[in-house]
Amino acid sequence: MTTMIALRAILFVVITLAVICILEIISSESTKNLIKEKLGDLDERYEKRLSKKQLEIIYNGSYENKKYIEKVDDIIESSSIRFIFPFVTSEIFLASSIVIAIVSTAVFHTFVYSSAIFDILIFISGLFLPYLLLKKATAIVGDKIDSQILPWLNTLSNLSATNDDIVTIIEKSTLYLKAPLKKYAEGFVLEAKQGVELQEAITHFEEKVSNRRLKQFIRNLGVCSKHDADYKKVINKSKILLRGYFVEKSRRKKDITQGKTDIVVTLVIGIVLFYIFVSFQPEFSKTITETFIGNILIGYNLFVLLFGIYKMITIDELNF
């Protein structure tokens, strides 16, 4: 026991010294320039993939058979994380996920509990943690956009009464918007004013939005611009449809909240019962921690716990 504590202490010192050395290397001017150059290359690749996807949608109407890296691009775009951390690309996200998985597994194995079954579960959890955080960020962004849609449509309706230029209408409406919808709308206006064809700018605007109803509304504006340009009529019809959507969303939100509550209660009851059983049976505690079958039992229960947490985070997708 004393030897194990000494080994862990030595490992902790070694890790601390290694981190200090890495920080010193990173802080050097040449390393900073190299990192900046590499981040620029990754950002350029990311933007090229987005441009390729947008062109495919413009000319073919959809973009099928996406590569895995392109699916990660979509998650990053939907989460709007690049508004806060512009350097984040799919490559950096995936590399960070692997690093988090390795570090969390090593720390758990060294300082908490040493078991191959637990190592696998912790590694998988570390891999999925960044993904789950992005999914949660996507849900938060979706709620922020949803809270602005009807007020935005009211603003567009009022502005369209005195103007039939959709670019000018949306530009004036940005004064009343908040991020991220404000950024999306400003991007559309900027592209249109810089000479990008209106339909292409509208398609880019639509692609940046994850809400299906808002996508449909923007698509309808594009169709309207090709014909009679009666934007007020399209906007007012969309308001009626979206009011129904928000009523239904409010109802679903209550069901989802109840579902989350049920998951939490089930997990808590399971943990409490397991703790009580172990407290009354000390030998059982020793058995499950020191035998292979016991480790499998604990691993299974940990998996159920992690899966419950995963469902709590991803269940929000049912409301979009």
Explained architecture:
With 320 residues, the chain is an all-alpha fold. The protein has a domain at 142-246. The protein is built from 13 helices and no strands. It has helices at residues 2-27, 29-60, 68-79, 81-84, 90-111, 116-160, 166-173, 181-193, 198-208, 212-226, 231-280, 282-290, 292-314. The radius of gyration is 26 Å and the shape is globular. The termini are far apart. The mean pLDDT is 79.
Tell me briefly what this model is.
The protein is mainly alpha-helical and about 325 residues long. It has 13 helices and no strands.
Strand content bin: under 5%
Overall helicity: over 70%
Enumerate the spans where pLDDT stays under 50 for 5 or more consecutive residues. none
Number of helices: 13
> What is the terminal-to-terminal distance?
53 Å
Mean residue pLDDT: 79
Count of extended strands: 0
Assign an overall shape.
globular
Rounded Rg = 26 Å
Task: Output the helix-strand order.
Answer: HHHHHHHHHHHHH
Largest sheet: none
Helix/strand-derived class? Answer: mainly alpha
Question: What keywords describe this structure?
Answer:
13 helices, mainly alpha, 320 residues
